[in-house]
Fold:
Amino acid sequence: MNAFCRPAPWLALALTLAASSALAASGPPPDYILTDNADLAFTSPDGATKLEQYMRDSGDFDVKWQAWARHGEQMTELKPEQGYPAGFRFTNDSQWLVRMQKTGSGEQDLYLYHVEKGAFASATKTSLSDLAWAYFHSRPDTKMKLDFHISANLVKGTEEAYRWLGVKWPDNRYLVISLSGEMDKHPKNVAVKGLGDWKCRYDLKTGSFDVPALFARENAEALKWEIRR
Structure:
C-alpha cells in the first residue's frame, strides 16, 4: 500500500484537534467586551445572522470597536476595526450587508459585505464610500474640493428596494448613497458651503455607479448648497 494514500492516525488526530481549536478560538479577543446597547445589535431579515459589536477601552481615549457576524456556531469579523460603533443594513434577501461607520464628528464611511461560503466577507477591495467618492469626482459636473464633515450615507430603503422613492427597481439589486461635505473657503456672507446630499446608485450585480434621472434636480441643488449668514 502506498504510504501516502492516507495520513497516519496520529496526524489525522492532530489535524482534527487543530481544526477544533481554531473553531473554538473564533470570535473577538478576550479583552473586547460585548456591548449591551440594544441599538448596536442587528439581525438579518432571514434571522440566520446576528451582528454583535465589541469594545476595548485601553484608557487615554484609546477605544477600539470590532463587529462580528454570528451565523450558527460560526463567527466572522467584519473588518476593519474602528474607533466607533457602527450601524448596519441588510438587503431583503440577507445576502448583502452595508456598514455605516462613523469615523469622526460629522464624518462617515460605508463598507459593503456579501455572503460567501455561508459567511459575510468584504465585497469590495476598498470601502464602498471611497468608490462612491471616486465616481463623484470622475464626473465632469462635480469638480469640487471638500475639506471636512465628509460623509457617505446609505439612504434608507434597502429592504424594500426603495419603493418609497416611487421606483420599481428589482429587489436586492441597488443601493442609494448620498454624499456630503463642507469647504474651508467660502464668502464672508456664507456660514457654511459645500455639498449637500448628492445622490448616486450602486448596482450590486455589476459593481457600477450611475445617477438615475429622478436625482438630477436635487443633485443640482446639492452642488450649490450653502447656508448664508
